[in-house]
Design goal:
The chain is mostly beta strands. The chain has one domain (about 1-80). It is about 0% helix and about 65% strand. It contains no helices and eight strands. It is elongated and about 55 Å long.
Length: about 90
């Protein structure tokens, strides 16, 4: 579904769902610890529900978890492009 952005007839707003599946992370550390994954976009923050054990021998933490974020993307009708948005993981 799209809506015109107020004050700009060339710009339309579309709502998207973005999914990331976090299978595992690999990180070399000299001690066992627990880790989580944080996905950030603007003021939206989504974190894995569980912390995973990071094993010093395998250097892996297993999650097998899906993170979902909803975001508006803005489309310029004249330029036929979406505005860029950056995220941090």
């Amino acid at each position: 579904m799209s809506t015109n952005v107020e004050g700009n007839s060339q710009l339309k707003s579309y709502k998207f769902q973005f999914d990331i599946i976090v299978e595992k992370i690999e990180l070399t550390v000299s001690f066992n610890c627990q880790v989580s994954v944080l996905w950030k976009r603007g003021s939206n923050k989504i974190e894995t529900k569980n912390k995973a054990n990071l094993d010093v021998n395998s250097n892996q933490a297993i999650f097998n978890e899906k993170l979902t974020m909803f975001s508006n993307m803005y489309f310029n009708e004249k330029g036929k492009t979406f505005h860029e948005k950056k995220v941090k993981i």
